[in-house]
Amino acid sequence: MKHFSFAALVTSVAIAAIGAAQAATKAPDRYVLVHAGTLLAVPGKPPEKEMTVLVKNDRIAGVSKGYLDAAAAGLAPDAVVSLIDLRNRFVIPGLMDAHVHLMGEPTFSRHRTERGDRNPPTPAEGTVNTMVYARRTLAAGFTTVRDLGSDDQAVFAVRNAINAGRMIGPRILVSGSALAVTGGHGDSLPIDATGDPQARLRDGTCDGPIECREAVRFQYKLGADVIKFTATGGFGSNTGLDPQFFPDEIEAIVSTAHLLGLKAAAHAYSPIAIKQAVRAGVDSIEHGFLVDDEGLALMKKSGAFLVPTLSASYPPPIFRIPDPESVRIRNEHKAFERAYAAGVKIAFGTDAGTFAHGDNAKEFGLMVKFGMSPMDAIRSATVVTADLFGISADAGTIEPGKVADLVAVAGDPLQDVSALLAVDFVMKSGRVAKQAERMIEPFTYPPPSATF
């Protein structure tokens, strides 16, 4: 015979009571019927007219021809249903930007420099900046972004707040501090901290394979979603365009990231560094302005993505000069055009933060200007970026089972891609974030029961 203590019995009854109470207070399923005049559900396939997207909670439950009401959509008479009328709008999946820096932008950074302060924003300043710029990015129609270089706190904190439902913002994949060699592009340590192991870890500064592996593992421990390293110098730090990591260091970074289940992104200009990174198995080349034909062939064979960041070279206001070298290099080498012609996978990325956040969609105009079709440009910011991020099962298209990320514009972006500069409706994970050109409140605090 089994014997139960009185305390155990009381505990069991209490747990059962709590479970029953939670079940009784569980919010009913939310349904939204979105009537779309034109729906580009799967970029790369033709759009369809007069469609209904059925959203259940945070997911797409169905996509149907015609403008359905609740009964026609098969919903129960007592279902909680709202209707969003986008019959005069062109609806597409939520956009994605594979390369942003949410902690700052030129105006903020310039003011610090002009007063003689060359240190990066403090974690507190960076967190506030990230909250503001993430909201601005979402308002522009970008429901998922990849932040490739911040610090060990700010963007992590905002990502976590968004994921917990405490504020509205885009889905953020965070790299934390970009890995850089001592004195290289991305090394922001003051001289007196160069030899401090803990400071080096927080900053992502590493030399040699062993230290580089440790730097990757530290970012992983912080909760990084991706590892970013600066294989070459860069315009922003005035460190040149040549290689800065040795091949064994690059291999250590990429292999350690993959061992931990993370993808690796390489900031790289030099053709030598690009090939070294691709041979090491890197997942994406950021910028890639000087890539040669051999490098493109290697990328095509390996499946590495190019994130072209045309907006970062053409030119962002951070340079504050009329004819920056970045424009000359971009126009001379035409890496984007050559990669597109070669069939290299191109994921949409802007380097927002070198210019104002919320202007991300100007990249579409540059991509089309340099020869990409509007459809392929939109596909690069949806289907292709989802593939790069490893979230294709959840995002990138408007199909049943996917997260309900929807964007709407007044014009037809397949005819005039500049229509994407004026997004007036945004749904993020089934929640309306922007409607009639107006953002909703920035914070949505969960009820006390949700934090039990």
What summary fits the major beta sheet? 8 strands, mixed
Provide the residue-averaged pLDDT: 90
Number of helices: 14
**Pattern of helices and strands:** HEEEEEHHEHEHHEHEHEHEHHHHHEEEE
| Reported CATH architecture of the largest domain | Alpha-Beta Barrel
Amino-to-carboxy terminus distance: 36 Å
CATH superfamily of the largest domain: Metal-dependent hydrolases
Question: So what's the overall shape?
Answer: globular
Number of domains: 2
CATH topology heading of the largest domain: TIM Barrel
Low-confidence stretches: 6-11, 110-115, 448-452
Identify the strand order in the major beta sheet. Answer: 3-2-1-4-12-13-14-15
- CATH top-level class of the largest domain: Alpha Beta
Structural class determined from secondary elements: alpha/beta
Tell me the total number of β-strands.
15
Summarize the amount of helix as a percent range. Answer: 25-40%
The radius of gyration computed from the alpha-carbon positions, rounded to a whole number of angstroms, is: 24 Å
Estimate the strand proportion. 15-25%
